[in-house]
Amino acid sequence: MGPKAAVFCHNGLGDGIVSLVLPNNLQLNGWTVDTYQNTLVDMQSWFPQLPLLKYPEPEAVHNILSNYDWFFVFQNDTSPFVEKLIQEGKRRFPEQVKVIYIYPSKHIVNEPYYSDAQIDPSLPVAENMRLFCEKLLHLPKITKSNGMLPPAELVYKKHTKRIVINPTSSREGKNWPRDKYVKLA
């Protein structure tokens, strides 16, 4: 069995789904992976190969750091847990804690742990994760897939005129105004 890793994904639904490219690649290469993401735990059946867990409380950081070989933290959040995990993790295991910034900004290179993942903000997240797995982790099997598998009981195009709308986001400024939804309908 390979190393044991904890991956702390973005907590927004869309960002979380894209972030799963990393744990999917680790799992494909024989790693044991626990993925932490607060909104995706309800979609566990869509990712049967990836255990999805909610973020623990900040007090659990010491236990988390004692239970894994590697830690991958998508930094989009200044939650007390993420701050404590990075601070204590980098102090205790500087080479095993990788902080990943995937927001699209030329200023990303100024982030304190940019060199952990060397993300290119001009590339899509899935491509950045593929490059991270190839060039920094040197994994032999690499994909841009997040491993999503629709549950078997779902019927493709059963309702051909139905769409899914995610009306909220992690930040108010990313939410569509009501008139855009009306126009879409």
Give structural notes:
This protein has 185 residues and is of the alpha/beta class. The protein has one domain (4-151): Rossmann fold (3-Layer(aba) Sandwich), CATH 3.40.50. The protein is built from 6 helices and 5 strands. The chain has helices spanning 13-19, 21-28, 61-67, 80-92, 125-136, 178-184, and strands at 4-8, 32-36, 52-53, 70-74, 97-100. Strands 3-2-1-4-5 form a 5-stranded parallel β-sheet, sandwiched between helices. Helix 2 (21-28) packs parallel to helix 5. The longest helix has 13 residues, at 80-92.
Please identify the structural class as seen in this structure. alpha/beta
What's the shape? globular
What is the CATH architecture annotation?
A: 3-Layer(aba) Sandwich
H/E series, N to C? EHHEEHEHEHH
CATH class: Alpha Beta
How would you summarize the topology of this molecule?
Layout: E1 4-8, H1 13-19, H2 21-28, E2 32-36, E3 52-53, H3 61-67, E4 70-74, H4 80-92, E5 97-100, H5 125-136, H6 178-184
Parallel strand pairs: 1-2, 1-4, 2-3, 4-5
Helix pairs in contact: 2-5
Offer a quick outline of the entry.
It is built from six helices and five strands. It is α/β, with parallel strands linked by helices.
Task: Quickly list its features.
five-stranded parallel β-sheet; Rossmann fold; alpha/beta; 5 strands; 185 residues
